[in-house]
Amino acid sequence: MNRRTLLATGLALAVPGTLRAQSQSQAQSWPDRPIRLVVPFAAGTSTDIIGRMIGGQISRGLGGHAVVVDNRAGAGGTIGSATVAQAPADGHTILLGTIGTHAVNPNLMRNLAYNPVRDFTPLFLHSKTALLLVVRPQLGVRTMAEFVALAKARPLSVGTSGVGTAGHLNHAVMSEATGTTTTHVPYSDGARAMTDALSGTLDAMFYHTQFVRGQIGAGQLIGLGITGAARSPLLPAVPTFAEQGLAGIDAEGWWAMFGPANLPAPVTQRLSGILAASLTEAETRTTLERNGVEAIGGGPEALARYQREELERWGAVIRRANITVDS
Q1: Taking the C-alpha atoms of 55, 59, 62 and 65 in order, what is their torsion angle to the nearest 10 degrees?
Q2: What is the pLDDT of residues 203-257, one digit of tens each?
Q3: Which terminus of the chain, N or C, has less C-beta within 10 A?
Q4: 63 by DSSP, 3-state: which?
Q5: Are 275 and 54 within 8 A, CB to CB?
Q6: 184, 63, 85: which is closest to 133 by C-alpha?
Q7: Quick check: 28 and 270 in contact, CB under 8 A?
Q8: Tens digits of per-residue pLDDT, 297-313?
């Protein structure tokens, strides 16, 4: 072996060690400036509420370090997600992902600006929430059976908080399971859909528990069905879809934390540990339960596994039902 070969071999062997040393150095100095937590939906949405809670949890876990929530809404959450996918992998830009951004849109949208697996580092599987189908009393239906009968008799519209959301999936599965054809109306955020549902512009809508329980309690909306294996303790009078023979209507909104690909392992572990600890706090549990949100909990490996399952599951539904961004 000549001197040139020896030098080349030594350089090749040194590179991985150098990269590991750089990664460890970055992790030790992290964070050295405010952390940007990208929420890919508008302020006031359920994802924004969860994001601000998580931002506070991370800040406390880092001894009060600044965590700034950055709402990057648009295109079903893909704009904010792409922002994080393209950010430096230094732990100062992280994402609150959803079923839409990381399981549905990749199966639904062509030419997506990011790969949901390759372009991200899984950090933590946080929580999930049930969805309800609600209608105004003036529509004249009180049960799913009556809603299905009316949908077969005349055109009805069903709003959701956007393309690729859990509500969008539930609308598609409902159409398939009941043999009905209702018009899907995707909104840029659920608050606008709620306004139209209450005014009568929309006939019905799928939305999260925390945003319809008040209106159901006040008699402004009627809950026809809720996802999940059991009724919600917050809305015990609303039957599950499963108990009405519609078990397939079971898409639930979920939230998980991601960083850009190749995030240093020490940063990943620290963030995951902070979030895991936060879910054991009584205050966090109480806040989640009060809003109809259920803690899940799961580190990087658990999130990666869960995301793969969701990608496969909803990809099959989308192909079978021929769902498009316009459906």
Answers
A1: 120
A2: 999 999 989 999 999 999 999 999 999 999 999 999 999 999 999 999 999 999 9
A3: N
A4: coil
A5: yes
A6: 184
A7: no
A8: 999 999 999 999 999 99
